[in-house]
Amino acid sequence: MTRSNEPEKKRGKPRTKSSLEMKKMAAGGLPWTSLVGQVTGHPAAFAVVLLYAALWLVFDQQHFDFNAVATLAVWIMTLLIQRANRRDTLALHAKLDELLRVDNDARSELTRLDEKEPEEIEIHRDAEVKKAGPDRR
What we know:
This protein has a domain at 30-91. Helix content is 67%, strand content 0%. It contains six helices and no strands. The longest helix is centred in the middle third of the chain and has 37 residues, at 66-102. The chain is elongated and about 65 Å long.
């Protein structure tokens, strides 16, 4: 990985998101796929599934059979997996951000890389691998 020759004072500390920036992202600045991933990782998603199950049981008890229970179990397991994945990803990002903060030679733009779309991150990563040369793959 190449390192920036910028003076340290220009790079400074990575910016943290203000509540206004978070609201802007939620209002349309964040791609819908990322927003869905965040919402399904939230504990309230479990409440939505349980509310759906209760309403299904109350209003359509005839069709609340084994298949319904299996469907709800799949939804809950999906939410559990999504939540664990999101927790692990956030923890990893926090650790990497800390390493980037303490390394004086690190490029500050890397701390904001997680805000981009996966395809953009892949393009960035491929470019970095290409810059590193064939012996660093």
